[in-house]
Design a protein that fits this description.
233 residues; 18% strand
Length: 233
């Protein structure tokens, strides 16, 4: 794989990348791997958990495509008590081979969603994303990720001439600055698929600087796709 160490000197702020072949396999990790909260990327397993319990809904569509928080709260409430909801979403993560991440049942920051404050390491997020297309009933969620609105049209989405399905997440850190993250699946022209988890943060970063950094990384990934692991379910 082309040297990320050489490329990241061009970045204005650090970016972490974890990559895995869809269907499973070793995760390739580069850059800043400090674990951050998931923000809206956790809406993907939440949506699948709610779909399994209650069927496809309008709330699922807007929670993924528009990253609408009220819709995601509706999905969360549909799973029962906070403890039951946390267990259901954590269960989806386990199905996706993420053996470590625990979705909280209590609100950690008063102004934000319970589920959005899940601490999700990039390697674990990449592992889940690599297995997501293989999970029963996931086709609808992945399809919605392929239709995201402009507020998530960055990072992996900046790679031209490939099919992408992504979910972005962003929000202010307790210590200042903005976390911007993304999970996604890219389908190469030969049909094989690559899963990604990206994250960027500094105490001085903004939403805009984070998006710019992930766009820059997306373009670097696009230039090196042939060297990255890919697979199928």
């Amino acid at each position: 794989m082309a040297s990320y160490d050489e490329f990241r000197a061009e970045l204005a702020q650090p970016v972490g990348i974890s990559i895995a072949a869809v269907g499973g396999g070793e995760v390739v990790s580069m850059g800043d791997q400090v674990s951050q909260v998931a923000w809206s990327t956790i809406k993907v397993p939440l949506a699948l958990a709610a779909q399994r319990a209650n069927g496809i809904s309008a709330a699922e569509t807007t929670a993924i495509i528009n990253s609408d928080n009220a819709s995601a709260e509706t999905l969360w409430a549909s799973l029962g008590t906070p403890e039951q909801a946390a267990e259901a979403v954590t269960g989806i993560l386990r199905e996706g081979k993420d053996t470590k991440t625990e979705v909280p049942a209590e609100r950690r920051r008063a102004e934000f969603t319970i589920f959005g404050q899940t601490v999700w390491a990039l390697d674990d997020a990449a592992t889940f994303t690599a297995n997501l297309p293989c999970l029963p009933g996931s086709e609808h969620v992945v399809g919605l990720m392929g239709q995201v609105a402009g507020n998530q049209n960055w990072g992996i989405e900046s790679i031209a001439s490939n099919t992408t399905a992504v979910k972005g997440g962003w929000g202010p850190a307790v210590s200042g600055g903005y976390v911007v993250r993304q999970i996604g699946v890219l389908t190469r022209k030969n049909g094989s698929q690559i899963a990604f988890a990206l994250s960027t943060y500094t105490q001085q970063s903004t939403m805009e600087s984070g998006i710019a950094a992930l766009d820059q990384v997306g373009r670097w990934i696009g230039k090196n796709l042939k060297l990255m692991p890919s697979g199928n379910c």
